[in-house]
Each structure stands twice: as structure tokens, then as C-alpha cells.
Q: What sequence folds into this?
């Protein structure tokens, strides 16, 4: 006997996929976007959606489960962490005082990810709000070469860094989800 969940996928067409192509909201009809800005935004949108898909169907206890001790990482912690970094990226593009941390301590995003429905709901609301605020702030700067903030970081670098952050954490989410209930897929 083992307490490890059996590996499974919901997909029936391709067994290494998360969902069948017709059921995958990341699949789009037609050609890919034109231009660098639209392409970067499309990749960011897909990684954000991938993270949400990895969390779908789980309860508060499962979302807060720390699957790889002694790490404090959990799916809920990732949601909170990405809300925190979205806020932090806005700090990069301003010359003013930085916005305060959402969750206090440097590790408050992960340490505070507890199995409570209100905490889960708040984390999703925080993530949506912070994503929208960062998107709106960057939309004011459509020139990817424009440099912003005290460090004069280019808009392109900020967008690529955001994609990298989500992509890396989607990899973590793959492993965390598989440890929780065995579901696998891209």
C-alpha cells in the first residue's frame, strides 16, 4: 500500500495533456497574435490561466497542502505569492514610495496560506486585483523599450520577467497538484 495518489489525466485525446484540446481554454482559434507586445501578453494570459487550471476542483485543505516538506510551498501559497509579486512589479515602475506588502513578512505569502475557505477566496481576489492593477499600469506604456521607475527597467523586461515568474511557478504547480490527487498534464 502507498499513500501516493495514482497518476491520472482528464484528457482522453492525448494522455499527457491536462485537458482535451476542445476543452482547453488556452486553445484559441486562428493565427497567433501579431507583434511582440500582443505575443508577450498572450503568453502571460496563458500562464495565468494554467495556474488557475492547476488549482481547479480542489478544496481549501488541498490548496493549502504543502506537498514537499520542509518547503512551505503550496498551490494556495503560489496564488498569494503571485499576487504579492504583481504588486511588487508595480513598485518597479514607479518613482514614488513602494506599495506595502500584502502579506507582511517576507514569507507571509506562503506561511499564511492556511486551509480556510475565506483565505482561499481572499487570495484569488488579491491575485485578480493585483493582476488588473499591474496590467493597467503597464498598459499606459505600450513602448516595450520604454524604461520606467528608479531602476529604469524596460517594459519588455517587466513583461518577460512576469512570464518567467508564472512559467516557473506553473512547473511547481504541476508537481504540487500531482502530489495532491495524482492529476498530471501540461
A:
Amino acid at each position: 500500500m502507498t499513500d501516493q495518489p495514482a497518476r491520472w489525466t482528464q484528457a482522453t485525446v492525448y494522455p499527457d495533456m491536462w485537458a482535451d484540446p476542445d476543452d482547453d481554454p488556452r486553445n484559441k482559434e486562428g493565427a497567433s497574435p501579431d507583434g511582440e507586445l500582443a505575443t508577450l501578453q498572450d503568453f502571460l494570459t496563458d500562464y495565468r490561466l494554467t495556474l488557475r487550471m492547476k488549482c481547479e476542483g480542489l478544496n481549501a485543505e488541498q490548496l493549502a497542502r504543502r506537498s514537499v516538506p520542509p518547503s512551505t510551498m503550496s498551490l494556495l501559497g503560489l496564488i498569494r505569492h503571485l499576487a504579492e509579486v504583481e504588486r511588487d512589479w508595480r513598485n518597479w515602475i514607479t518613482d514614488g514610495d513602494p506599495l506595502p506588502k500584502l502579506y507582511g513578512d517576507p514569507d507571509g505569502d506562503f506561511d499564511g496560506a492556511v486551509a480556510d475557505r475565506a483565505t482561499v477566496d481572499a487570495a484569488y481576489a488579491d491575485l485578480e486585483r493585483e493582476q488588473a492593477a499591474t496590467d493597467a499600469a503597464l498598459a499606459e506604456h505600450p513602448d516595450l523599450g520604454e524604461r520606467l521607475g528608479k531602476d529604469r527597467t524596460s517594459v519588455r523586461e517587466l513583461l518577460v520577467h512576469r512570464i518567467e515568474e508564472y512559467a516557473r511557478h506553473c512547473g511547481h504547480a504541476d508537481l504540487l497538484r500531482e502530489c495532491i490527487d495524482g492529476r498530471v498534464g501540461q
